[in-house]
Please model this.
Amino acid sequence: MILRGLRAVQVVLLAAVVALSMAAPSAAIPRPDVDPFYAAPADLADYPAGAITRSRPIALLGLPLPVSAWQVQYRTNDAGGTPTPGMATMLVPQFPWLGPGDRPLLSYQVPEDSLGTQCAPSYALRGGWELSGITTFIDTPFMADALRRGWALVVSDYQGPGSRFIDGVNSGHGVLDGIRAARAFAPGGVGPASPVGAYGYSGGAFATLWAAQLQPGYAPDVRFAGIAAGGVPADWPAIARGVDGGVQAGLALLIVLSIARDHPGSGVADLLNERGRTMLAEDGSACGSDLVLKYTDARVDDFSIEPNLLSHPAFRAATDAQELGASAPQAPAYLYHSTTDDVIPFAGFTALVERYCALGADITYTYSTLPGHNPTAIVEWFGAMNYLGDRFAGVPVAAGCHAR
Model:
């Protein structure tokens, strides 16, 4: 009965993804920017990092699914250490955990990839049926599989209320404090002894690995049993150059807009021409999916006063500060990437793995021969989850770096 019910969840979620193109925005679900529940409490600074400030039960996706769900607001800190409100969605399957100890907790990082809070996973998971939630809707079958395994999920809006796409410290803090909030909220069998894992693909991998890197100093109380990440964004200029002028050119412009808007001291905004400044004004709060649809075949230099913006020292300096690899995760990690990834170049991933290994990390890595970014996300998911399942079960992992 339990397994049959959970398979039904997966079927319903898949049907919901298909229905997205026909769904109208729900008038009953306000966007985060106008929802008072998201507003920062006046006394936010009085709370410790990860403390819960408010919570509410929700119907997952606005549908009658056999999953208990809540939205939880918590205090976190931005990259500068300023208190800021975080938001997480907590999901628990409606059956008891039958394994040993407390129910495992998986911090699941959706690839938010956005410049606006209407693209945040919490809005989509509450039933905000808009195209802005497409990355969350696409990930729901994977979340359903994690729930099928009996795990609780915490899905944080790790980009924060400012929707900072390329801000590693900000994202890492959001993830770690979301885990703290989930443990404090303790839904459905989650407790102090719950093994904690983290997972993300693509943009979600960026947040996952930044959290793992920051964990020893920022959140020593959060001990990861294991982490898994795939399609890892490394070498931001190379990612932008790879898609520039093609069908996913909007991703290159998302990277430029994020740096120009969120890192004003970088000088990148000053390199935009009139068309670029208009784009920043019009699309400075857009979702990545919006930009991909709008700017097919566009070129970054059409929006710049100088040629080769993606190689400009100001752009490179700003993106260098957001690259992974300054330190290595202390938790055992499973990392994977397609050798023919058509969105995030493979070379950046191999360089990151080599860096982590040189720093003494315990990593199992897979150079997948599956063709491209999206097929790898689907097929390699199972290897990542099985790896986390072993870590949750206490299966030891060999020290050092190993190919799989």
